[in-house]
């Protein structure tokens, strides 16, 4: 007897996350019988490659989800809020990483390597996948928390422009192209802004991103903390089941195309050594790769990590003044590990 394979729908198939997800499908377990691709009206009729076949992208409408078992939403929060309940009502498990549902205690927040049990249950429900900021650090935090119990996390993240989608990537390239032949630019206040004032495209960033960093990522949040910073704090607490964990995050936009980085200062209830921490990270089933030999200039950087799936950890240090603390530097591809991969892993858990 032939067993019917589940149907997967990908909404936002023509965006950077959707395209990354589709490129990863052939490397994943052979789970899906059909893959349906959906996007906004302007992408209707576009042909996209999925699992070795040319698939025509359909416009989002209720009828498109008939017979769908699992649906991945790689769309903005406003779209996810509207469509996730509609799709779930038709019986599909809906996986959303936009942040639209992470504040809802009835919606499980899932990282399959840490809390796979949260993905259990029948179809017709919504599951949340964390932000790229959270996924950048959560595997490392979970492994060390298991051994020594985290008390405090102070994180400074350095986030790639691809978080803002194609517009973010194109804006960085456009600004660099405008500035690259002027070797005097960036040496006096306001000159970068002046040189970029004639660019036709509207920037998704609050300041120039080429030759610059911007100490704000995300929406207005509460006016002092950005939405990305607040979301990371709540997501880490939820995933680790540590509602009293003290955490402060500063998110910085940097001129990197893809791959987020972070500097982490972690404090624990129990004393630990650097060697113990490295051993736990190396031996744990956590998708973490330790690359830490400063004397040979071996540490993770975005240009070396982009296009890969693990989280890379380096610069592991124990400050002499903080015997219960560690300093680490982590890198992970924000489109793969920070988005598409986690959603695919959730989808596979649900489908199987």
Automatic annotation (TrEMBL):
<dbReference type="Pfam" id="PF01118">
    <property type="entry name" value="Semialdhyde_dh"/>
</dbReference>
<dbReference type="InterPro" id="IPR036291">
    <property type="entry name" value="NAD(P)-bd_dom_sf"/>
</dbReference>
<protein>
    <submittedName>
        <fullName>Aspartate semialdehyde dehydrogenase</fullName>
    </submittedName>
</protein>
<dbReference type="GO" id="GO:0016620">
    <property type="term" value="F:oxidoreductase activity, acting on the aldehyde or oxo group of donors, NAD or NADP as acceptor"/>
</dbReference>
<dbReference type="GO" id="GO:0008652">
    <property type="term" value="P:amino acid biosynthetic process"/>
</dbReference>
<dbReference type="Pfam" id="PF02774">
    <property type="entry name" value="Semialdhyde_dhC"/>
</dbReference>
<dbReference type="InterPro" id="IPR012280">
    <property type="entry name" value="Semialdhyde_DH_dimer_dom"/>
</dbReference>
<comment type="similarity">
    <text>Belongs to the aspartate-semialdehyde dehydrogenase family.</text>
</comment>
<dbReference type="GO" id="GO:0051287">
    <property type="term" value="F:NAD binding"/>
</dbReference>
<dbReference type="InterPro" id="IPR000534">
    <property type="entry name" value="Semialdehyde_DH_NAD-bd"/>
</dbReference>
<feature type="domain" description="Semialdehyde dehydrogenase NAD-binding">
    <location>
        <begin position="7"/>
        <end position="122"/>
    </location>
</feature>
<dbReference type="GO" id="GO:0046983">
    <property type="term" value="F:protein dimerization activity"/>
</dbReference>
